[in-house]
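Collaborator request, handled under Task 6.
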Amino acid sequence: MEAHYQNPAALRPIESAAGEVLPQSAAALLQWGLPLLLIVAGAGLWAAERESQRLPLQWVQGASAGALLLGKALMLVLLAVLLILPLTLLAAMADPARAAWLALTYGLYALIWIALTLTLSLLSRNARTALAGLLGLWLLATIIGPRLATNAAVQLAPLPSPEAFWAEVRVSQSQGIDGHSSGDQRRTELLQRTLAEYGVSKEEDLPISFAGIAMQAGEEHANTVYDHHYGEYWVQIAAQDGWRLAWAPISPLLAVDQLSQWAAGSDWRNHRHFTDRAEAHRRELQRFLNADFTENAKGQDFAYQAEPALWAKAPRWDYQPAAAGDLSRPGGALAVLLGWLGAAAIMLGFAYQRAQHEVLP
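Structure tokens returned to the collaborator:
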């Protein structure tokens, strides 16, 4: 934080993440690795038995198609639980509510891939065909689709470059947001109002330091400018989030990514919660210091030095991260995941109906 300026909190690794090829976090590794492991473990669960002619033998031994499919599904569910549960328990040590959302998010993600894996295994003639089809789907859903979605979102809702952003801020600070309020004009109007308030005709006759009043007025003007430009910035961030989610029909990972970041407290909503409170503290501290300057710097102005007691009373920074329920959750992402799960379940039911004749007399 810096006096007189609202600086953005930098997230350099996040800003460059769109160009990365390999996962750069534990969450990304789970988002890529969980479906890949389920594919490798489940691609041949039905197709390999069809290829080896073991299905009729299992029917003779009394197995039903439903029991066979349920057993294979449960095996994949257990595998997913073994991967998700340790991370969920670790997260629960910090925040049980957020951990529950993480468990729900990755639980739905795992069920989607389990249903897709079993569907292709049921429909494929052999395990190699099932594995090849699932790996192609994995490549589209985890690498190609998210990258295309990110690039499209950046094009459809572009953010200004730092140079352009600060150039616009400087223009608004010097000329006002409307472009017709110069700094000299604002100072003259402020001085006239202050003189009238204290019933004097000259700045020298004021019982307080006008420099302190002018500084706080400058802060308030700058705050209005920052609120305007940063407000537009956050609108664009939300728009990028929405455009990226619009691609979710080709990849459930896009919805998982939003929910996972929100539940972990690392998405733009949580980031804004932090930056808003940091900015509120900066403004509170500036008001405190300018009020003291106005009251005590008469006749000294910028040669004034405050006593140590002033700094002992200055507002302290005490940030408390937002609880999961304090921020609007990305409900659209949850709806997309449920939609994916419903579609995958329907496809699995269709594939199961086609495969039943292989184990029924």
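The cover message to the collaborator said: "Residues 23-158+334-358 form one domain. The chain has 14 helices and no strands. Please let us know whether this matches your experimental observations."
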